[in-house]
Amino acid sequence: MPRNVLYGVIAILVVVGGVFAYQAYERDRNTMQIEIGPNGVKVDPPGR
User: Fold this and answer.
1) Residue pLDDT, tens place only, 1-48
2) CA 47 remoteness from chain centre
3) For the chain, where are the E strands, in sequence order?
4) Which among 1, 8, 17, 20 is least buried, having the fewest CB atoms inside 10 angstroms?
5) How far is CA 14 from the centre of its chain?
């Protein structure tokens, strides 16, 4: 396999991985967080 084709495949995999990571980040950011600590209960609504 020529080296340029290999570099192209690796670049495509990196881009696809980045897209999936960003989607997971956005999905996690849009969830409600409830934290219980010494100062009581803190509820963070989903970010927009």
Assistant:
1) 699 999 999 999 999 999 999 888 877 766 777 778 787 777 777 654
2) 14
3) 33-37, 40-44
4) 1
5) 14
| Measured distance CA(18)–CA(10) in Å, rounded | 12
Look at the pTM and tell me if it is higher than 0.85.
no
Burial class (CB in 10 A: 0-12, 13-18, 19+), 44: exposed
pLDDT recorded at residue 46: 65
Q: How many residues does the chain have?
A: 48
- The partner residues of 44 in beta bridges, in order of sequence, read 33
d(CA 10, CA 16): 10
